[in-house]
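Anyone? Bumping this.
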Amino acid sequence: LSCKVLSSVVTPCYCFVSPQIRVKPDNTGVVTDGVKHSMNPFCEIAVEEAVKLKEKKLIKEVVAVSCGPQQSQETIRTALAMGADRGIHVDVSGKDYENLGPLQVSKILAALAKQEDAQLILLGKQAIDDDCNQTGQMTAALLDWPQGTFASEVSLEGDKINLVREIDGGLEHIKINTPAVITADLRLNTPRYATLPNIMKAKKKKIVTVKPADLGVDVTSRLEVLKVEEPPQRQAGMKVETVEDLVVKLKEAGRV
Amino acid sequence: NSQTVVNRSFKQLSRPWGACQAGWRSTSSRSVPDVASHHPAEVVSSFPPLQTYTEEEGMMREAVKKYAQERIFPLVSQMDENSQMDKEVIKSLFEQGLMGIEIDPEYGGTGSSFFSSILVIEELAKVDPSVAVLCDIQNTLINTLFVKLGTPAQKEKYLNRLSTDMIGSFCLSEAESGSDAFALKTRAEKHKDYYVINGSKMWISNAEHAGVFLVMANVDLSAGYRGITCFIVDRDTEGLEIGKKENKLGLRASSTCPLNFDNVKVPEKNILGEIGHGYKYAIGMLNEGRIGIAAQMLGLAQGCFDHTVPYTRQRVQFGKRIFDFQGMQHQIAHVATQIEAARLLTYNAARLKEAGRTFIKEACMAKYFSAEVATLTTSKCIEWMGGVGFTKDYPIEKYYRDCKIGTIYEGTTNIQLSTMAKFIDKEYNV
């Protein structure tokens, strides 16, 4: 498979350093100020897979893409330090960034894939901040490409791809044509550490910044977030001595 | 004219600091200002705070933090208990490029800066000061000596191995000469084109695993310290005997061994630098190594503190968190201030060195102060943790044991203070 370009999507996600996620006082979202952001774990796995394919000489080039404000470049640099060849930063900031959802990202990726003449798009199956699990699928639909989602094994065979997917019933083996979209699941691989020499090499790699408008994409959201609230506080439980007591208590609570 | 001096050093200062913001690596002539990563939106101040890092330094610190937490932390307790550095840890240190931080990529190194080494040592020390000292000695003593003094042949032979799989040891101290280092008695007798080394060394770190030893021996004892010469001795050289490692209070995973030299033949080409200049090299290297130790002690203090404060926020007595008692708050804030001061001293000494300015007094201050802060911090942390701080189930007591060496090795506190006093004396010499 002589892949021209492999696009690997790197979505910056909220990775909380200390596990106290707080809802904003106005209930419009979660507090993101001062919270450490880093690469989405599933995207890390996607980048690792892309770099592995390049090391096996099955693809020519790995391009890391991230949509977001200036800080997204750090995430791209991490991908470069893992072995990606160059980066594209799609600059989306402020209110646009807060409302950036899977549909807009898919449109951006589809536009980039056409522009870069990519043969393969590798993404994480979902972002751990919103758990949408939609971007990969939507991108494939927009491009009318086959998709292999929840991949736990990927191998290239000629100009086709053999995939093992993790599904509720077990493992599904499929064969898809290229160009294609693949989303990475947890067991696809174990991402490498960015070694210090690779971090140094990454400095010389290029990151190009573009705007969604340059790609002909309108990032206005079709969704409006009405409210974000914390789950109800966990109430204390009750202990009962016998099964009869349990039934009485359940009836009292109107549960039976 | 003091005004001109100030202006000159001002100019020298503003370029590296300003360029730092644009992602430029200061001293090396190899690097080119990375203008591409300079963003017009950023305000480039000529005097950014000391805790400003280039993008590269920031990424390195994050990478090492993650690596240390995932690959070293699980093994710390066991390595301390058995007084044994895990082979996998050593291997992964090399794989991550942490053992050749300033070595040129041409020799398999990382090609980064001194300050990056300092950050790496600090991050490693937060998790295990023993691992940090292994990394510190390799980078600030061994590699620097080879890079600065090595002939092309010596660099060719050793630098690659030092970046990829070989540990080095620096052999200066002896049983009868610690602080009085130049009174060393190990001698090297010249024979045609080789030397024969006889004597013994003590307190040699990394000796258990080292593949190469930089041995300070005297070629002419009648010349006093002006006979001290630095010899490169490979591990498998006949006559070199590595003694049993010491059973230490702290830094137990770092091997510390006596060495014996029994008619060890070393070819002339294994002299590093010039004959009789060894004392200069030793002093020079130790001035830099000092900043590394300061970083180690700093990381130790911070790591210990980071383990303790969450406990004080959780532990409830008399109906409130122990953190909420004013007595505790004052103690905690005091220690936090000391750590911050130690950090600033250390970072500033490192930046001064990178800027090519005099840094010896500042390096002494950083090492002395950081070691004292580590002692204070660990002692208080055990108290704040109460009974659990006293048990081996919690990592605090290890930090307490590890910190003590900070006031002793690579120049005792008394030596640091005397050195500083010499500088102060000169400053007031009108």
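Late reply, but here is one note on the structure posted above: The two ends of chain B are 13 Å apart (CA to CA).
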